[in-house]
Amino acid sequence: MAPTTQIPRNQWYVAAYGDEIGASLFARTICGEPVMFFRDAGGTVSALADRCVHRRFPLSKSNRDGDKIVCGYHGFTYDKTGACVAVPGQTRIPRTARVKPYPVHEQDSLVWIWIGDAEPSPVSSIPRAPWLAADGGYTTLRALAPLKARHSLLLDNLMDLSHETYLHGGYIGTPEVAETPITTEVDEEAGIIRVSRHMDDAECPPFYAKSTGIDGRITRWQDIEYFPPCLYTLHSRIAPAGVLPPASGPDSDAFHVEITYALTPETETSTHDFWMVSRDFGHGDAGMDSFFSQMQAEVVQQDVDALNLLEELIAADGEAYQELSINIDTGALAARRLIKKLNEAA
Amino acid sequence: MPGTLAITWEPGSDTLLGTCHCGARHTSQDPVEAWAWLLAHPDGHGLSGSEGASE
After folding, report:
1. pLDDT(A244) > 60
2. Taking the domains of chain B in order of start, what are their residue ranges?
3. Dihedral Cα A106, A304, A165, A320, nearest 10 deg
4. Among partner residues A186, A187, A327, which is closest to B16 by beta-carbon distance?
5. C-alpha to C-alpha distance for A253 and A118, rounded to whole angstroms
6. Residue A218: beta bridge partners?
7. A189/B7 Cβ within 8 A
8. Does A189 contact B5 at a Cβ distance shorter than 8 Å?
9. From the centroid of its chain, how far is CA A147?
10. Residues of A numbered 275-334 whose beta carbons fall under 8 angstroms of chain B's beta carbons: which are they?
11. CATH no., domain A11-124
12. Cα A63 to chain center, whole Å?
């Protein structure tokens, strides 16, 4: 059976980076729903269905009049809550003239949107990524990779990092990644999956050798925390072999890289692959910024190319293919189960 | 189901050690079977390959 295309609803998803949304009207399809975003005069992000109720003209191709949106086709005018406040040529505004407003919340430089008809979960339930905040003490490079593959394929990819050895050899992969056993934990109450791989004497991959300047073997820890369905974080700790964190106080002899992904379905078979790489060293180093940005973009593109290919094959093969799971898939299987649970609950 | 479920891949082996939120443990060589055992709590906790069932 192929990985699911079902999209969990009644969930918060990352819709955009905060700096993507400004005064201009901005369109993005989230979980199959066309949405239009803009930042109002007070700086708050608003989100409305991107279709005029009259003849479905996209509001994102329309115009702003202060915090009101005037449809670019016939002039239906909406306030930022989606209520129609003016229609052309008549004073009576039809009762059903409104477009759907979406709850949004901006934190840690990400704009989250609630997708679903149920009351939104409290914003306090949205997972945090404080290293992405402007004052988080990390330097972050980020981009958005369009992925023509389903959310569950990207999730499979991220939950099993043993693929780094084969798909990303020469970048972040070394033999130890695929060879080191992992621990997978599912916190059923919080709905979080943690996958840890601690390599205590590993080859330093080119990505980290060049950026940290470590010459020789390393202690390399990879601790994944996945907050279904959208936010994935990989806490990466790199230090010279044998250097462990102190019992207390800051872990200042190690380099820390936070790799964050937001996996937001665009449609059932395409995904917004938001990727962010944050480091706690080399601040203000433009050369290192460029190196991190380029290397991570290439790694992401290797994943995108592989997953696009898988999506094409699934479409061609149909449902007849029987997958085989082995030990390295323990985390991905846990993630699939939590997604299934979210789908059943929605 | 409250609590934390864990599967540890034991170093130097192909063995997965599942630990249920109740403390029961189970060894396996198949992650699909390992998760199925954990999720079936408390069913199967007394079978061969399992130990320490409680609740």
Report:
1. yes
2. 6-51
3. 110
4. A327
5. 47
6. A202, A240
7. no
8. no
9. 12
10. 325-327, 329-330, 333-334
11. 2.102.10.10
12. 29
pLDDT at B52 over 70: no
Q: Which amino acid is at A90?
A: Q
**Which residues make up the CATH 3.90.380.10 domain(s) of chain A?**
130-345
Determine contact: B41 vs chain A, CB below 8 A: no
Q: Which of A86-90, A111-115, A223-227, B42-46 has the lowest mean pLDDT?
A: B42-46
Q: Is A187 at the interface with chain B, CB within 8 A?
A: yes
Can you tell me which residue has the tokens 């394929």? A153
Distance separating alpha carbons of residues B42 and A33, to the nearest angstrom: 42
Q: What is the ipTM of this complex?
A: 0.86
A334 chain-B contacts, CB cut-off 8 A? 7, 35
Cα B22 to its chain centre, rounded Å, is: 10
**What architecture (CATH level 2) is domain A130-345?**
Alpha-Beta Complex (3.90)
Residue A35, class by beta-carbon neighbours within 10 Å (0-12 exposed, 13-18 middle, 19+ buried)?
buried
For residue B48, name the pLDDT band (cuts at 50, 70, 90).
low
Contact across the interface for A181 and B8, Cβ inside 8 Å: yes
Contacts of A67 (CB under 8 A, 6+ apart): A40, A41, A46, A79, A80
Q: A29 has which bridge partners?
A: A34
Provide the shortest C-alpha distance from residue A68 to chain B (in Å): 47
List, as one string, the DSSP characters of A68-113: EEE-TTT--EE-TTSBEEE-TT-SPPPTT-B--B--EEEETTEEEE
Distance from CA of A230 to the nearest CA of B (A): 21
The residue among B9, B20, B21, B38 with the most chain A CBs within 10 A of its CB, best to mutate, is B9
- Span A271-324, pLDDT tens digits: 999 999 999 999 999 999 999 999 999 999 999 999 999 999 999 987 778 889
